[in-house]
Amino acid sequence: MAGIQKPAWLEALYAQKFFVGCSYHETAKKNEKNICCLDCCTSICPHCLPSHRFHRLLQVRRYVYHDVVRLEDLQKLIDCSNVQAYTINSAKVVFIKKRPQNRQFKGSGNYCTSCDRSLQEPFIHCSLGCKVDFVLKHCKDVSPYLSTCHSLQLSPDFLIPQDMGDEEMTNETPHSTLLDCEYEPSTGSSGSENMSHLAYTQNKIVRKKRSGLYLCARSANRVSDHEDMGTSMSSRRKGIPHRSPLC
Fold this sequence. Notes:
Layout: H1 8-15, E1 35-37, E2 42-44, E3 57-59, E4 61-63, E5 66-70, H2 71-74, E6 86-88, E7 91-95, E8 110-111, E9 118-119, H3 128-138, H4 165-169, H5 189-235
Antiparallel strand pairs: 1-2, 1-3, 4-5, 5-7, 6-7, 8-9
Organism: Carya illinoinensis (Pecan)
Pfam family, one: PLATZ
InterPro entries: PLATZ (IPR006734)
């Protein structure tokens, strides 16, 4: 890579938007684009993985509202020396883009070469973008810092959303009786025993259903009786009072 040009995957890492909904999987769950395909130079979501399974994939994470990548993965692509790393979930990560400060810190210590952010020693870059800008400004070429990487897969802790077909299957109405199930009788004594057992089970289910209907009928009759009593009490009128004749 000669001149001041950057590799295409590095340009895509800067320009692409992550943690936004994927336009190809708008109706799918967990469709945030948190992967950068280095071969296609685009951001993809987990549902796009089948189309990029043989490509170099770089997982993008989120830390304090900024995009970061694991230092272990990024070092396979470019030299990350002198870039300050931070620890998240027991793994070191590096910020992708610059993080300029509105209020510049004044005092002794290390500062970022690009955005004047206060850093720990011996680091002099707060992000990958700051180091690339520093290299292009002084060396005019980033190719000496690039590494040859033919294969880059996602880390084992990457979560792939499961298929939602099982959720739709649970909405189906199950069979209510054994009569809906197929039964193939067998020959011999065991077959007669199975048939008698099946008949006993069916009769038990029928009796259970009948008892349930009987209980429902009794409860309905009780409700109707209470309603009749209420209507009879409300419709009852007082009769003509019988008084003794005046003497």
